[in-house]
From TrEMBL:
Lineage: Bacteria, Bacillati, Actinomycetota, Actinomycetes, Micrococcales
Record's keyword terms, sorted: ATP-binding, Cell membrane, Membrane, Nucleotide-binding, Repeat, Sugar transport, Translocase, Transport
InterPro entries given in the database record: AAA+_ATPase, ABC_carbohydrate_import_ATPase, ABC_transporter-like_ATP-bd, ABC_transporter-like_CS, P-loop_NTPase
Annotated SUPFAM superfamilies: P-loop containing nucleoside triphosphate hydrolases
Domain ABC transporter: 13-248, 259-502
PANTHER family in the cross-refs: CARBOHYDRATE TRANSPORT ATP-BINDING PROTEIN MG119-RELATED, D-ALLOSE IMPORT ATP-BINDING PROTEIN ALSA-RELATED
Species in which this protein is naturally found: Microbacterium koreense
Designated name of the protein: Sugar ABC transporter ATP-binding protein
Annotated CDD domains: ABC_Carb_Monos_I, ABC_Carb_Monos_II
An MF annotation (GO) of this entry: ATP binding
Organism superkingdom: Bacteria
């Protein structure tokens, strides 16, 4: 490619007048999208704005009710996923589409294994995986079973799988939602090389700073309609938010000034080999405590141990001053602990169940006798909770799988609120969630703390932690390197501790 601006490049994709309806929902209404070669075209909008539906139409999973798709100057109609892939469409979804029991190399060649006669050519499979992972600067052994990798490493394998097809148009749907800063930098470098090679890139993200950094143009969707398309240069995040939600969101991270009460959680010198060592922290009533650190620092492992999903080898945990041995999730719940996990789809919800059924999973024993479920009572409780949490649409008998990520996350939060825990552990509670739903979730967390609850919150977004939390504990390589009060917490002080530079951090 030349050094011409993207506006001078040929049109790679033109979607015109795209409309799509589902029973009771108009997902898209007369949407237009134009993407050029060598361009990063961002698409932003709240969950439910139509972004995913538009991309599924592009990928051939849905057929539009109206409109047409033009690829490289040729109109295509009624195409399907295989044809879309053959035409050079590559899709990298937020939710992983991989097989944990297969190796990294096998996942990268999944569905298109090279053969030598009647047998799979595993040497060629490994060679292809090595080449693609090398392009991504991913230090991953192709022979490793995928299930042994971290979520961020699995996301890089997902990207490698798409890049192995040499696509002409690549859609990134929240690609950094599971990546740390280092992996995100690597991804942006890869996207920069793809752009320079003339690949058209569609980039969907709720992280508006990423859009500002990497995008050339941005299209804003709201309620299934295209609101505006413009150059990223000169636009502000505030302007994008206003277009996305149709109103000003002046306070993304509202913080209540609460007076902490009695100590709820006390963790003293807990350790587990290979994950964390001598970790001590505490959380009080009406307090939100942050747990910061880089990917691999042990944040999630500590949270899982406190909830009882993973054992500790030494140290002790106390709830309200009383030592507890939490050796299972059931015992964690009985001790008053709830965990909203990092992996919403895999660990937080059962997608095929309804909103009602997901809400009441932890408390179903309260709504049953030996033989009967008190259906009327259950529906009443769930309707009130769905209304309080602003679940949209408020249709509690629909499968949770058809709801947006933000609404699914509200259901995960809501089911634990029904359990009335003393301690709520949140692992990336706003990951992959739009700005409107994020504000709703922060409000829910604040209400829980205001009511006397204790919150331990993990987030990779430092502005979120610094704005929401009363104190922040920082982990580096499995050890607590700092405890920083709200008044002293800055992005610099947290990052110094997160990278092990504890000499200049006031604890």
């Amino acid at each position: 490619m030349t050094d011409q601006p993207p506006s001078a490049h040929p049109i790679a994709l033109h979607m015109r007048g795209i409309s799509k309806s589902f029973p009771g929902v108009k997902a898209l209404q007369d949407v237009e999208l134009e993407v050029r070669t060598g361009e990063v075209h961002a698409i932003v909008g709240e969950n439910g704005a139509g972004k995913s539906t538009l991309m599924k139409i592009l990928a051939g999973f849905y057929q539009p009710d109206h409109g047409e798709i033009e690829i490289g100057g040729h109109v295509v109609r009624h195409w399907h996923p295989r044809e879309a892939r053959e035409r050079g469409i590559g899709m990298i979804y937020q939710e992983l589409n991989l097989v944990p029991d297969l190796t990294v190399a096998e996942n990268i060649s999944l569905g298109r294994m090279p053969h030598r006669g009647p047998f799979v050519d595993y040497r060629a499979v490994t060679q292809k995986a090595t080449e693609v992972l090398g392009e991504l600067h991913a230090d991953i052994d192709p022979a490793t079973p995928l299930g042994n990798l971290s979520i961020s490493q699995q996301q890089l394998v997902e990207i490698a799988k798409v890049m192995a097809d040499k696509p002409r148009i690549v859609v990134f749907d929240e690609p950094t939602s599971s990546l740390g800063d280092k992996e995100t930098r690597v991804l942006f470098e890869v996207i920069g090389r793809m752009r320079a090679a003339g690949i058209a890139i569609i980039y969907i993200s709720h992280r508006l700073q990423e859009v500002m950094e990497i995008g050339d143009r941005v299209t804003v969707l709201r309620d299934g309609r295209r609101i505006e398309t413009r150059d990223v240069e000169g636009v502000t995040p505030e302007h994008m938010v206003r277009l996305m939600v149709g109103r000003d969101v002046s306070e993304m991270f509202p913080k209540l000034d609460l007076v902490p009460g009695e100590q709820v959680l006390t963790v003293k010198n807990i350790s587990r080999s290979g994950d964390f060592t001598d970790v001590s922290l505490d959380v009080r009533e009406r307090e939100i405590v942050g747990l910061a650190g880089l990917v691999g620092s042990g944040r999630t492992e500590v949270a899982r141990a406190v909830f009882g999903l993973d054992p500790i080898e030494s140290g002790e945990i106390a709830m309200r001053g009383r030592k507890v041995k939490i050796r299972s999730a059931r015992k964690g719940m009985a001790s008053g602990v709830a965990l909203v996990p990092e992996d919403r789809k895999g660990q937080g919800i059962i997608p095929m169940l309804t909103v009602r059924e997901n809400f009441t999973l932890p408390v179903i024993q309260r709504l049953t006798t030996a033989l009967l479920i008190f259906a009327r009572k259950e529906r009443g409780i769930v309707r009130r909770l769905a209304d309080r949490l602003k679940v949209n649409p408020p249709q509690i008998e629909r499968p949770l799988s058809v709801f947006s990520g933000g609404n699914q996350q509200k259901v995960v939060l809501g089911k634990w609120l029904l359990a009335e825990p003393s301690l709520l552990i949140l692992d990336e509670p706003t990951r992959g969630v739009d700005v409107g739903a994020k504000a709703d979730i922060h409000e829910i967390i604040g209400e829980f703390a205001q009511g006397g609850g204790a919150v331990l919150m993990i987030s990779s977004e430092l502005p979120e932690l610094l704005a929401v939390c009363d104190r922040v504990f920082v982990l580096h390589e499995g050890r607590v390197t700092a405890e920083i009060a709200r008044a002293d917490a800055t992005e610099e002080s947290v990052m110094r501790a997160a990278t092990g530079q504890t000499g200049q951090v006031a604890a």
